[in-house]
Amino acid sequence: VRKRDNIVGMEGSIISHPRTWKASGHLDNFNVNDYLVVCTKCKKSSKIDRPNLGKIKCDSCEGEYDWQNAKMIEQMFKTSIGALNPMEAYLRGETAQGMFLDFKLIQQTSRMQLPFGIAQLGRCFRNEIAPRDFLFRSREFHIGEFEFFIHPDEKKCDLLNDEHLNTKFMFLDEETQKSGSDKLKEVSMKELLQKKKLEEWHAYWLAEQIKWFYSIGLSKIKIREHTKDELSHYSSATFDIDYLFPFGSLEMAGNASRGQYDLTQHEKESKEDMSIFDEKTKTKIIPRVIEPTFGMERVFLAVLTKAYSYDKDRDNIVLRIPAKLSPIKAAVFPIIKNEEYERIAQKIVDNLREDYNIVYDRSGSIGRRYARNDEIGTPMCITVDEKTPEDESVTIRDRDSTEQIRVKIKDLNDVIKKIINGENLLKLGKVVDTRVK
Predict the structure, then answer these.
(1) Dist. CA 404–CA 397, nearest whole Å
(2) Which residues, in sequence order, are CB contacts of 376 under 8 Å at separation 6+?
(3) CB burial of residue 384 (10 Å; 0-12, 13-18, 19+)
């Protein structure tokens, strides 16, 4: 978001008026899509999606479900506002509606012109009857969403380039799913456009998501097209982005074409004009919307499972998180407990903390300190040693290779920035041979 001129961020309210969710269609659609059923054999309660009613058996014992007594689940969390005459309200089930409600105000105050987007990352709530599967069935979670607004008549995407068109990925289309198969095939975004699976703006944002996942090392992804009977009430085309976790392929992100549905519905319910003046066409219009969505905990879990490894040579865990994603960018150590070394190390920490999240550690052997930081994914360790007082230089150890270079203290900030941006550490200073790796 920060790197784009055509997107602004916001933070909306968690508690919403019922009319918000009536207008969005969630009360009429979201709350009738899932049902509680009980197995006649083992008596286990399960949540079943509407398309699967009457079609599947108990996942625990293969018994038959009591379909006749299936009970609709209200997925929206209810709460109340006020003390004397409490008013019914809901906890948000998605962040999107806050962006639609504030769309016109944000467009006016930010002076954005179409096409532009609004982004939000926040906590959402769903009334799961049986939270399970770790992060995949939980009652509260974080979603990162973009709502990208486009002129309804604009079909051409000027941002779509050859890199987007040539982006390749594994794909499961609607036709294959309806045939009863789950066979994947590698396709390019250009092929999906040619088959009219999506339009150009949708292709652009889906390709941007795929490229971003590839850039953080998550290459084991597949794109699954939603079949017509599972599309959400607001969507004309939706794609799941699934990741191959060690325990199976599961959804971690998605992308939907919401059209003009949300803004039109809020205009109808509120009687407020949701149209904006388009400078290009000199007309008032209600934009259509493309929505890339990220399940933040799921993405984080994918990064962790990809990064986790056990190094036999070191005999410890190494969390190989890309440096740009690591919460701690560097650790600083004095090689031994020495007042002068500790003073220099602390000064380095104080200077670097202006720009990065840095940890300072002076307890235990240097090897033990390296191992501790390997386990939490710290990409580099900076050591103040016997040469530091002489020439104002320190060593930087690379987490993944254990190779070390020596650089001047005054150059540390610049070197760290280059390492975070993906440059090879060994090319940024003099390579040194050390006893402890």
Answers:
(1) 4
(2) 319, 328
(3) buried
CA distance 119 to 364: 44
436: confidence class by pLDDT, cuts 50, 70, 90? low
- Cβ-based burial of 180 (10 A; exposed 0-12, middle 13-18, buried ≥19): exposed
- Please, which residues bridge with residue 302 across strands? none
Enter the CATH code of domain 312-432.
Answer: 3.40.50.800
Task: Please give the model's pTM, rounded to 2 decimal places.
Answer: 0.86
Dihedral sign computed on CA atoms, order 345, 350, 354, 356: positive
Listed residue (431, 414, 432) closest to 423, CA to CA: 414
The second-level CATH assignment, the architecture, of 7-15+78-304 is 2-Layer Sandwich (3.30)
The arithmetic mean of pLDDT across residues 18-30, rounded, is: 82
Domains 7-15+78-304 and 312-432 share a fold: no
DSSP one-letter string for 375-391 = HHT--EEEEE-TTHHHH
Nearest partner of 120 among 149, 91, 142, judged by Cα? 142
Helix, coil or strand: residue 91: strand
Q: Where are the chain's structural domains?
A: 7-15+78-304, 312-432
Output the pLDDT for position 354: 92
Give how far Cα 114 sits from Cα of 272, 284, 424, Å: 20, 12, 40
Place of tokens 């493309």: 290
Counting every residue written for the chain, the total comes to 437
DSSP SS3 for 176: helix
CA 154 from centre of chain = 28
Query: Helices 339-352 and 412-420: crossing angle, nearest 10°?
Result: 60
